[in-house]
Design goal:
By secondary structure, the protein is an alpha/beta fold. The protein contains 13 helices and nine strands. The protein is globular, with a radius of gyration of 18 Å. The relative contact order is 0.17.
Length: about 260
């Protein structure tokens, strides 16, 4: 019952946390942090010049309305960040606005989970036998997004679906292929150890009442030099229509897979 209540509160009753997000951006700036995208963070700075840094990564699993609000607050505060869109959340107008501003709009990919659900595959070994086809599907989707965006994508982020959890097979296995990365021009996937090892602290938002793991970014400011903050629009403002749509879609996929 407590779990059900927490889900109802998170999806339908939670007050907007967007003022808290803007306050965090302001506080980080006041504490001397540079706030950048993944793509910008990967560009080597001149020796000895890197200030304390927060890399903002947004995984756009759902809710474009709140995504646009997060972006507007970052523009107001002069903050750059990365927004990773699923195929189901692509909005090329918003994505081009993000790129034109100087932030990063990119791909939140999930071809392994999508392929498994589409072909009703429940065995990880069987899914792996189809990895060549799945990788070609990823490459085609990436090209389509680049065409719609009008610019090259250099970093991507793996999405975690319920199918991945059941299969115990993560989507970023697609990119365990250096030739595919080279062909697609992928410099980094956001779970690459080469990227994660550059951070002193990695924080992800969580549903209430936890809100963050392993600790609040407010508590991290001043204690850690290099921070990655992963956020999802659904954790910052409720959207009744979108949350209901996503919950129904998840139920149907679970029943039909």
């Amino acid at each position: 019952m407590n779990t059900l209540f927490r889900r109802l509160y998170s999806d339908y009753l939670m007050p907007s946390r967007l003022p808290e997000y803007e306050a965090l951006l302001r506080e980080a700036t006041e504490r001397g942090y540079t706030q950048v995208s993944v793509r910008e963070f990967l560009r080597p700075p001149p020796p000895g010049t890197r200030a304390p840094t927060i890399v903002h990564r947004h995984d756009i699993d759902s809710d474009l309305r709140t995504t646009a609000k997060l972006f507007a607050r970052e523009v107001r505060r002069g903050v750059r960040s990365s927004f990773y869109f699923r195929l189901s959340t692509l909005d090329f107008g918003l994505m081009r606005d993000i790129e034109d501003y100087g932030s990063e709009a990119s791909y939140h990919f999930e071809e392994i989970a999508s392929f498994a659900k589409r072909h009703h595959l429940h065995d990880a070994a069987e899914v792996r036998r189809h990895l060549p086809a799945i990788r070609e599907e990823f490459a085609a989707n990436l090209r389509r997004i680049e065409d719609g965006l009008g610019s090259k994508i250099s970093t991507v982020a793996s999405h975690g679906d319920f199918a991945n959890r059941k299969l115990k097979l993560i989507n970023n296995e697609i990119l365990a292929d250096s030739s595919l990365r080279a062909r697609c021009g992928i410099a980094c996937e956001t779970y690459d150890s080469a990227l994660l090892d550059k951070f002193d602290l990695y924080i992800s938002d969580r549903p209430p009442p936890l809100l963050y793991h392993p600790l609040s970014p407010h508590a991290a400011l001043g204690r850690y030099h290099s921070i990655c903050l992963l956020t999802h629009p659904v954790q910052w403002e409720t959207n009744w229509r979108e949350n209901t749509r996503c919950n129904l879609r998840r139920l149907i996929e679970g029943l039909t897979w």
